[in-house]
Design goal:
By secondary structure, the chain is mainly α. It has helices spanning about 1-10, 15-20, 20-30, 35-60, 75-95, 100-120, 125-145, 155-165, 170-195. The relative contact order is 0.13.
Length: about 200
């Protein structure tokens, strides 16, 4: 029963699932109207869906083991594909005069993927934990201390990733640390150096 619960937690906090509401939140919270937020969310979801289809295709063809791409040796292809797709998304934002906040979010994803790919060459850091810790850190920085309560999700998600045998404790700690440190670094650069 506990393994089933762990699998549900891992699915709910899958990075692709966690990304779904973010474009809406970013556009709406930075002054976009409801319709603009909805349009950019659906456009963003299209790219998330394309990436999901690529993973399914990879599983079918045998170059990905499962939806989590659990084998460390398979992850460079996953990360490089995600980076390429995100760069195409950034180009589309440029041509459609997209909201600046989505550029920042997409650039943050590219940087995060690049760093996680480098770390992955040594140890399989948890992308689940990196994503949720990055999101929670961003919410605390932008929306306030109330969101600190969300950090209770981190040990729960870490437990689920360990319970499902996708990661070790060390890999979950590294993923969490990367998410927090990268988010703080990117936030400081854009807010205090570039002044966006």
């Amino acid at each position: 029963m506990s393994k089933f619960f762990a699998e549900i937690i891992s699915l709910v906090f899958n990075p692709l699932v966690v990304l779904i509401p973010i474009p809406f939140f970013l556009v709406f919270e930075t002054g976009g109207n409801l319709m603009e937020a909805i349009i950019w969310t659906f456009l963003s979801l299209f790219f998330v869906f394309l990436f999901f289809l690529f993973i399914l295709f990879g599983i079918k063809k045998g170059f990905f083991s499962d939806l989590d791409v659990s084998r460390r040796t398979q992850r460079p292809l996953l990360f490089s594909s995600a980076i390429i797709l995100t760069i195409i998304y950034i180009a589309l934002l440029y041509f459609l005069h997209g909201p600046v906040i989505l550029y920042i979010g997409a650039l943050s994803i590219v940087v995060g993927l690049f760093v996680v790919d480098l770390v992955n060459r040594v140890i399989k850091a948890s992308v689940h934990l990196a994503t949720i810790s990055a999101l929670l850190t961003f919410l605390v920085l932008v929306e306030g201390r109330l969101f600190i309560l969300g950090f209770i999700l981190i040990p729960l998600l870490a437990w689920s990733r360990i319970k499902t045998k996708n990661h070790t404790l060390q890999e979950t700690i590294i993923g969490t640390s990367l998410g927090i440190l990268l988010t703080i670094t990117i936030y400081v650069i854009f807010k205090y150096i570039i002044h966006v």
